[in-house]
Specification:
alpha/beta, 21 helices, 20 strands, 15% strand
Length: 569
C-alpha cells in the first residue's frame, strides 16, 4: 500500500549564522540578478521541491537530462534546470568562482559555486525536451529569445527565501506540507495540478480521484510562471478560495506551488510527479494532454492526448507516486450531473463549454450557466475580464519606414478620441525615440530594447483601461511576440501590418533616408541593409499604396469592432 513519506527532505538553506556571514562575503562577489523564472527555480531548489538537485545542473547532468531524462548518477530527472546568463556576464567568470544570486530588488537569496560554464545546443534541447524546435511552443520561444546564451552549473547555498507578499498563508514548502499531512494523520494524498480556475467539472473530477485512490485531496495550483495568456494567479487563487467550502474541510487542503512551468507535456508530467513526491503526496492526477502548450506552427497539437499518461505510467515506480487518470467530465442534462464522457450511453444530452467558449462569453458579457461553473468563480472572472468593450487595448502598427504607419496611427487616434469613452495615447516611433530611448542606437539589441519599452508603456495603459496606439517599425518577429504577450495579460492586442512595399516607401521618402542607406551612409537601415520580418498572422494587413489614410484608419476601426473592442454607430 502506498503511504505518505512524512520524514523531512533535504533543503539547501544554511544556518542563520552562516547566512549572515555569507551575506557579508557576498558584497565582494560577482552578482547575478535573477529573472522571474530563475527565482521560481531557485526557490524550489532551496526548499527541496527539486530534490535530489543540489543546485543548477552541471554540463554532465544537463547532457544526461536532455538526452535520457537522467542525472549523471542515474536519478530520474526530466527537466533542465540551469542558470542561463548573458555572454557579457559569463565572459570573465571562471569555474571555481562563487557568485551572489539576487532577486530583482537586489536582495541576496543564495550563493552559487560555479563549477561549469558552457554554451548549450538550444536546438537540440528544444527537440529532446519539448519534442520540436518550434517557437510556437512558449518554452522553445523562451529558450531562443529570452534565455541567456551561456549556462552555468554548480551547487547552491540558500541564504533566504524569495519574498512573497500575497497569499502567504497558502504557500507551503515541501517540508511544511509533509508536517501538515503528518499532523492531520493523512497517509494517502492525491494532488491536483492546475493553472486554471476550478469549475464544476474539476470539482467532480477531484472528488472521483480522491474516492478512487481512497485518499485525501491536495489542490496544488501553480502560481509561478504558466502559459502566456493564462488567467493571472491572483484571480485564480481568489477563485480557488471562493470554492474551497464546496469541498469537505476535513479531507481537502489548498496549497500554492511557485513553479515556472515549461508546458513540456509528457516530460512535464513526470517532473510534476517528482515535485509532488517531494511535497509528500502519494497520488497525482495526470490530465489529458497534461501541460500541453496548444498548437504547433502547423496547427497541430504538440503532444498526443495520452502521451503524458503513458510516460508517467512507464516511470511510475521510480517517481514514487501513483498516477490517477484524468477523466474527461461532461454534464448530462437528463440526470443533472457530471459523468465521465467515456461512460455515457447514446441518446442523452451532453453539455460542455470549452475554454475558448468560456473566454468568448466573458469577453461578450454573455451568460455562464450554473451547471458549468460556480457563481463565485464567475463573479471573480468577470471582475478580472470585463466585456471587451470596457477593457483597455493596444493597436500595434508595424511596417517599413515611409509605409504610412504614423499617418494612419494619427488618423486612428483622432477617430477613437472622437468616439470617446477611453483615454487614447499614441506611442509613435520617433516620439518614443526622443523621450524614452534617446540613448539607444539602431543595433538589433537596441531596437529590441526600444520596442520592449514601448510594449511596457502600452501594457500599463491597457491594464488601466486606456487605448495605446503604437507605431514603431518593429522589424523582428520575436520582439513583437514578446510585446503581444506583455499586453495580452491585461487586454486585447491588435497587430496591424502596414504592408506598403519598399519601392513605394522609397518613392515617398521625404527625409531622404533610403537614399542615404543606399549610399551606405546610414547603417542597419530596415528594408535595405537590415531585415524586416513580416508578421505571419496580423489582425489586419493594409497596403497604403492605393488607399487613402481615412480608408486605412477605417479598416482598423472595423477590425476593432469585429474584435468586440469598440461599437461603431
Amino acid at each position: 500500500m502506498t503511504v505518505a513519506n512524512q520524514t523531512a527532505i533535504p533543503e539547501l538553506y544554511v544556518s542563520a549564522d552562516a547566512a549572515a556571514a555569507l551575506k557579508d562575503e557576498a558584497g565582494a562577489m560577482l552578482s547575478w540578478d535573477l529573472t522571474p523564472r530563475q527565482i521560481c527555480d531557485l526557490e524550489l531548489l532551496m526548499n527541496g521541491g527539486f530534490n535530489p538537485l543540489k543546485g543548477f545542473l552541471t554540463e554532465k547532468d544537463y547532457d544526461g537530462v536532455v538526452n535520457e531524462m537522467r542525472l549523471a548518477d542515474g536519478s530520474l530527472w526530466p527537466m533542465p534546470i540551469n542558470l542561463d546568463v548573458s555572454e557579457k556576464f559569463a565572459e570573465g567568470l571562471e569555474p571555481g568562482t562563487d557568485i551572489a544570486l539576487r532577486d530583482q530588488e537586489g536582495v541576496i537569496l543564495a550563493i552559487m559555486s560555479v563549477t561549469d560554464k558552457w554554451v548549450p545546443n538550444k536546438s537540440l534541447e528544444a527537440e529532446k525536451v519539448f519534442g520540436a524546435d518550434d517557437v510556437a511552443h512558449p518554452a522553445v520561444n523562451y529558450l531562443h529569445n529570452s534565455a541567456g546564451p551561456v549556462y552555468l552549473g554548480g551547487p547552491v547555498k540558500g541564504l533566504q527565501k524569495p519574498m512573497h507578499y500575497d497569499f502567504r498563508g497558502r504557500r507551503d514548502t515541501p517540508n511544511e506540507l509533509r508536517a501538515h499531512f503528518k499532523k492531520l494523520g493523512w497517509r494517502k494524498i492525491v494532488a491536483f495540478q492546475t493553472r486554471n480556475p476550478l469549475h464544476r467539472a474539476h470539482q467532480e473530477l477531484t472528488f472521483r480521484a480522491a474516492r478512487e485512490a481512497q485518499a485525501n485531496l491536495l489542490i496544488h495550483p501553480v502560481v509561478g510562471m504558466t502559459k502566456p495568456g493564462d488567467v493571472d494567479h491572483f484571480t485564480r487563487v481568489r477563485c480557488y478560495e471562493a470554492v474551497l467550502d464546496k469541498y469537505p474541510a476535513a479531507t481537502t487542503s489548498l496549497s500554492l506551488l511557485n513553479l515556472a512551468m515549461r508546458m513540456a507535456g509528457p516530460r512535464e508530467a513526470v517532473w510534476h510527479g517528482l515535485i509532488r513526491r517531494n511535497h509528500g503526496v502519494t497520488h497525482f492526477i495526470v490530465g489529458r494532454d497534461h501541460a500541453g502548450p496548444g498548437k504547433n506552427s502547423a496547427g497541430e497539437d504538440f503532444y498526443g492526448p495520452y502521451e503524458a499518461q503513458e510516460l508517467f505510467r512507464k516511470y511510475e515506480d521510480e517517481i514514487g507516486v501513483k498516477m490517477v487518470d484524468f477523466k474527461h467530465m461532461v454534464y448530462v442534462q437528463e440526470r443533472a450531473q457530471y459523468e465521465p464522457a467515456d461512460e455515457i450511453e447514446e441518446g442523452v444530452t451532453v453539455l460542455n463549454i470549452s475554454g475558448t467558449e468560456l473566454r468568448r462569453r466573458l469577453r461578450e458579457g454573455l451568460d455562464i450557466p450554473e451547471w458549468f461553473s460556480f457563481p463565485e468563480v464567475v463573479r471573480e472572472l468577470r471582475r478580472n475580464s470585463p466585456p471587451r468593450a470596457n477593457q483597455g487595448f493596444t493597436v500595434f502598427f508595424t511596417g517599413l519606414s515611409g509605409s504610412g504607419k504614423s499617418t494612419v496611427a494619427n488618423a486612428l487616434m483622432v477617430k477613437l478620441m472622437e468616439m470617446g469613452g477611453r483615454p487614447v495615447t499614441l506611442l509613435d516611433g520617433d516620439v518614443v525615440r526622443k523621450h524614452l530611448s534617446s540613448e539607444l542606437g539602431f543595433s538589433k539589441e537596441h531596437r529590441d530594447i526600444n520596442i520592449k519599452r514601448i510594449g511596457y508603456v502600452a501594457s500599463e495603459i491597457t491594464k488601466n483601461g486606456g487605448i495605446a496606439i503604437c507605431a514603431p517599425i518593429a522589424p523582428y518577429t520575436a520582439t513583437r511576440r514578446a510585446v503581444r504577450e506583455m499586453i495580452e495579460q491585461y487586454g486585447a492586442f491588435a497587430e496591424v501590418h502596414i504592408s506598403t512595399p519598399v519601392e513605394e516607401c522609397e518613392r515617398r521618402d521625404r527625409k531622404g533616408l533610403y537614399k542615404l542607406a543606399r549610399e551606405g551612409k546610414i547603417k542597419e537601415f530596415t528594408g535595405i541593409s537590415d531585415p524586416y520580418e513580416e508578421p505571419a498572422k496580423p489582425e489586419l494587413r493594409v497596403d497604403t499604396t492605393s488607399i487613402d489614410v481615412d480608408n486605412a484608419a477605417h479598416q482598423v476601426l472595423l477590425t476593432l469592432e469585429n474584435m468586440g473592442l469598440i461599437g461603431l454607430k
